[in-house]
Design brief:
The chain is mainly α. About 70% of the residues lie in helices and about 5% in strands. Strands 1-2 form a two-stranded antiparallel ribbon.
Length: about 220
Amino acid sequence: MPKTDGSATPTDATMPPPEQLVRFTHGERLTHRTTAGIVLLLTATGLVLYVPSLALIVGRRPLVEAIHVAAGLLLPVPALLALLSPEYRHDLAALNRFQPHDWAWLRRHDRREARLPIGKFNPGQKLAAAAFGAAGAVLFGTGIMLLLPTQLHLSNNLREGATLSHDITTFALLALLIGHLWLAYTHPEARRALRSGNMPYRYAAREYPGWTREQIAIRGRKSK
């Protein structure tokens, strides 16, 4: 059987590979956009509260604080609602599972030419998702501590520790976000997949050969 150019995925001559593969459902894309919007709002309001010069320019500190707190409380809501979707749960499980070839991908400099059987998400995306999740948990937890110090009976040391952890995690998250945005800029196919839900077959076959083979096999079974 012939192989498509640039891919290790065999295809049936009677069924040429599609130009596009379905990558994300509407619900997954909506969850990503909503979470991204909340994170951007938290980042903007947090910077205004943290940087005195920005606070002077914007003013209305109580309003900015209220928006920051409300956005922080809403942060986990999109992901929690998305858990109702089996597709989202399946993708979440894939993000949380490292395979032997994932470790090999991380060690290789020629990872994109090695044709390793990478699934729907590459190891870099899995590590980034874990980092985003951990940062979100730390920020949410320390935010609750700072919001309700009296109700939680926090000592001054715990309150100061929560403030320091909140600030350090925020700056680490900013660095991660910058890297995330840069990679999204350099991989327009992946970026468009989060907008349209579809990914070009050639790009998927190069970046996610294992997942591409699975999708072609599913497509073949459905056509019978």
